[in-house]
Amino acid sequence: MAQKKGLGRGLNDLLGTSEASKPSRSRNNQQNSSENTSKEVKTVTKEVVKEVVKEVEQKIKINLIEPNKSQPRKQFDEEALQELSDSIKKYGVLEPLIVTKKGDYYEIIAGERRWRAARMAGIKEVPVVIRDYTDKEIMEISLIENIQREDLNPIEEAEAYEALISEYNLKQEEVAERVSKSRSTITNSLRLLKLCEDVRQMVMYNMISTGHARALIPIEDPKLQYETAAIVYDQKLSVRETEAYVKAILEKKPEKEEKQKPQKDLSVFYSDIENKLKSILGAKIAIKASNNDKGKIEINYYSQDELDRITEMLYSINKEMM
């Protein structure tokens, strides 16, 4: 009985109940207390088991594991991978990959970088923890993991947000809640997708910052946007200088283009006139046409005598017309 009382008081103290401080009044009370204690023991045991039991880690052949096609991260630093590979050769893969079963293979949820480095190191088996997630959950987890580790470049992060919104009909507020970011952060990230592909590449390779990139967004012409980004990179402009430069480009008034009439192919017509004038004047004639039906007629001469002859002929033509 002493043991039961002791055990009962210990659990009651653990659970914060007041019955442990009261003396036992009868055998029935003791039995009731014992039964209650037994129930409490089972309850506490279940809770302790939940805390103590960890996910089962196991080893799987590396050739049975494939990367997640929806993995937000597309670029991996080869030098950093080689360093991790060298470490794995010495110490093995210390942190297990998180995978999910997909038919006859396992898809990576988290740990693709370790998987790549392990393959480079020639490792045949890697430690994994198998979990069952939906495609949406897998994408969210992959995105969150990469964001927490700052593994994604700004364009990859923006593309991942866009995928969550378009593929799973999430709102920006919902995406922000899932990745523990503010809505404005998500909005500013998504704006980077308005950049042309060439400028996106410059952001991905850290040639220009996200601040520079956002300043370039108002330039809608892809060619001009890229040319401006190249100037920003070459001249090492600050973000404020870039904003001012872009503003100047957008405020520049386009030159008034003259309305041009559709050009007709008049080369044959002009050639016929040139030949007729040549036969009259006995000199080489060239008609230079320009826009709006304007142009000029050139009379070529090769000596002073030929100039005098042409001049006298024109005078005589003028007299006849008068």
From TrEMBL:
Region (Disordered): 1-43
Main location: cytoplasm
Assigned keywords, A-Z: Chromosome partition, DNA-binding
Protein name per its UniProtKB record: Chromosome partitioning protein ParB
GO biological process assignments: chromosome segregation; positive regulation of sporulation resulting in formation of a cellular spore
A cellular-component GO term for this protein: chromosome
Comp. bias regions, Low complexity: 21-36
Entry annotated with the keyword DNA-binding: yes
The keyword Transport is assigned to this record: no
Domain ParB-like N-terminal span(s) in chain numbering: 58-147
Gene3D superfamilies: 1.10.10.2830, 3.90.1530.30
Any one GO molecular-function label of the UniProt entry: DNA binding
Locations listed in the record: Cytoplasm, Nucleoid
Superkingdom field: Bacteria
Pfam family, one: HTH_ParB
Family: Belongs to the ParB family.
